[in-house]
Design a protein that fits this description.
Elements: E1 2-10, H1 20-25, E2 39-40, E3 45-48, E4 52-57, E5 60-65, H2 69-86, E6 92-100, H3 108-119, H4 125-129, E7 139-145, E8 148-154
Antiparallel strand pairs: 1-5, 1-6, 2-3, 3-4, 4-5, 7-8
Length: 162
């Protein structure tokens, strides 16, 4: 799995509150964790650390971890959880958890075969139109679960192997 990101939507974040001083004072980051390319302004806060990035805009807060699964969860709780707790009067509206998995294969032909095997339907006229060698197949699924909307988007893209 690739790193995940979390987006929290609020009626109004105040990015000017999220200063380097505020992050350190509230125990969210240490001075050493905040990298020099971080940006703090009245309209945007973009905090870079070795393990994550936190982007704060007036309408949303986005947290992206660069760590793998278990470590990312711990980081999410320690950083994003503390930010949310430190802003008790912020009217949060929604939260989105975004995960990205990628199947790596250097051979694009085998990716095409896998996509066709999993998603091609030869009984559907629309799919028959795409029954050509250079076609790639994926899927989109969506359902309600636990009071939320779960969306799964499977895209047939080729990415460089790590």
């Amino acid at each position: 799995m690739n790193p995940a990101n979390v987006v929290i939507i609020a009626r109004q974040f105040n990015p000017s509150i999220i200063s380097q001083y505020w992050l350190i004072k509230n125990g969210i980051f240490t001075e050493e964790e905040i990298l020099p390319d971080s940006i703090f302004s009245p309209v945007i806060a973009n905090v870079h650390s070795r393990d994550c990035q936190v982007l704060v805009l007036p309408e949303q807060l986005q947290f992206t971890s660069t760590l793998a699964d278990p470590a990312a969860q711990e980081l999410l709780i320690s950083k994003l959880g503390k930010i949310v707790q430190a802003l008790p009067h912020t009217p949060f509206v929604a939260a989105g958890l975004n995960f990205s998995w990628q199947v790596y294969d250097e051979d694009d032909a085998s990716n095409a075969v896998l996509g066709r095997k999993l998603f091609f339907r030869d009984d559907n006229p629309l799919y028959k139109f795409f029954d050509v060698d250079d076609a790639r197949f994926g899927s989109y699924m969506s359902r309600d679960i636990l009071g939320c909307r779960l969306k799964l988007d499977i895209k047939p893209v080729t990415v460089p192997c790590p």
